[in-house]
Backbone:
């Protein structure tokens, strides 16, 4: 009788152990399935929003680049196309004037050079003259560092009105520079990849 009871208890214990092991295995398999589904969904979401698809984005400016070629050694009366990373326009050097005084203000460097220019806006956005000539300077034959332009009320007015797409506008730039046998107007210098490079060359003898 004692051995029979002991055998029954041992058999029940084995049955309980087998049931527990099977239940634990089912739980583990379900967890694995859940984790796999979650990772799959995350991967799908990342591909949909493009955050982890293995590609790199490019801006439109980077794709388009600058197509206008450099135009060097232009003369009075010539027209150049200037293209940079935000606009495009034509600029014509109409005439030059060289004087030692601008109004009642004497030159500090040697003489004033006044450039009369015409700009045609080739872009789809309004353009200000002051922005068109943001990278413009006047160099002498002896000095390549360049002089920046400015204005004096009553002599050369500020050129800050907008030029509508397709329209043209004329104005002047004033430079206080050293006397020289030759002057070089530069636009877009040292802006490789951001603007083409344009130069106009002239001498004081060509002044109006």
Residues:
């Amino acid at each position: 009788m004692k051995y029979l009871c002991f055998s029954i208890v041992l058999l029940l214990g084995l049955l309980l152990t087998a049931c527990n092991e099977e239940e634990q295995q089912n739980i583990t398999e379900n967890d694995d399935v859940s984790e796999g589904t979650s990772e799959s969904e995350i991967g799908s979401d990342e591909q949909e929003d493009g955050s982890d698809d293995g590609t790199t984005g490019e801006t439109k400016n980077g794709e388009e680049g600058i197509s206008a070629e450099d135009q060097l050694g232009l003369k009075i009366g010539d027209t150049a196309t200037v293209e940079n990373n935000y606009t495009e326009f034509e600029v014509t050097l109409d005439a030059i004037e060289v004087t030692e005084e601008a109004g009642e203000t004497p030159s500090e460097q040697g003489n004033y050079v006044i450039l009369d220019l015409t700009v045609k806006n080739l872009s789809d956005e309004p353009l200000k003259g002051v922005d068109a000539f943001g990278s413009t300077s006047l160099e002498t034959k002896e000095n390549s560092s360049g002089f920046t332009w400015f204005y004096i009320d009553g002599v050369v007015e500020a050129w800050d009105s907008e030029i509508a797409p397709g329209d043209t506008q004329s104005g002047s730039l004033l430079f206080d520079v050293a006397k020289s046998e030759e002057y070089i107007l530069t636009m877009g210098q040292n802006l490789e990849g951001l603007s083409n490079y344009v130069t106009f060359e002239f001498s004081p003898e060509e002044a109006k």
